[in-house]
Design a protein that fits this description.
- This protein is an alpha+beta fold.
- The chain has helices at 15-24, 40-45, 85-89, 115-151, 176-185, 211-223, 225-248, 251-265, 276-285, 289-303; strands spanning 2-3, 30-32, 62-65, 79-82, 93-95, 103-105, 156-158, 166-171, 191-193, 198-202.
- The chain is built from 10 helices and 10 strands.
- A 4-stranded mixed β-sheet has the order 1-2-3-4.
- The longest helix has 37 residues, at 115-151.
Length: 305
Amino acid sequence: VCSAPCYPYGVVDPVRDIGQIAAKHKLLLHVDACMGGFMLPFLEELGYPVPGFDFRIKGVTSISLDAHKYGYSPKGVSIILYKNRKLRRNQFFVHADWPGGIFASTTFMGTKSGGPLAGCWAVMNHLGRDGYRTIARQVMKTTEVIKEGIEMHESLHIIGSPDMSVVAFTSDHGDIFNIGDALTSRGWHLDRLQFPDALHLTVTQLNIGKEEAFLKDLDEIMENRPSLNREQRATKNSVKVVRALTKILPGAVVEKVARKAGTLIDSGESDSKAPQAALYGLSASLRNRKNVSTLVKNLLDGMYR
């Protein structure tokens, strides 16, 4: 399996090299192009240096892509393509001896709405190849401005060399999640990454024209170093306290407290007030990933209470 590109850093895997290995050993090779399937082909048409990832690469046998990402269609119409009909036939399920009649399905989900399919058809026909190319060009220009603005700060660094409009950046000072919380307070919602800690942007058509406002807020946050330092110290202290309590208190008490925390994460308001820096700081400090999974389950349980 390869990614084109990978979600965290926007980097396309070496599909050509892995394709040679797959072909040599007669193995199937799937390319996850869910992020790039509706972006990379149009970037290639625009002249961007896009690494090979599709059926033109020897060894590639299937490709998945999400129309609801850069296809700008409703969710529920993800696509899987096969190299040939012989491979595709393996996905079909047919039960010919059912008393209710002959049952056949092309997917795991036998019953699904036709609404998203109709929406996808309408969007793709409305935009056309010219429309997707135009959006791709504008999105990449916006991405380049954002990348340059981030790199203007000595302590901030883009991770890797993104092949498209998916970007992650980190901080030398270990305060990247505090920066993320500060951006959230100003209305910018960035994803959090781990191993290493980073903030993540998926730049789309909705972000075109917003890049200067985003960079202005980022500049102001970075210039207010005393505030960032205070938030970072508070986060570290919170993590230390929680770690100490988990060592001292009985497991049942820790479980109860974590469950209570889960109920406080979302009180039905549109925006959660819980700082992500503390949550991810605690997650990174726990060596036992099972404990992290338990904590997250408690949070989800609280949200659906």
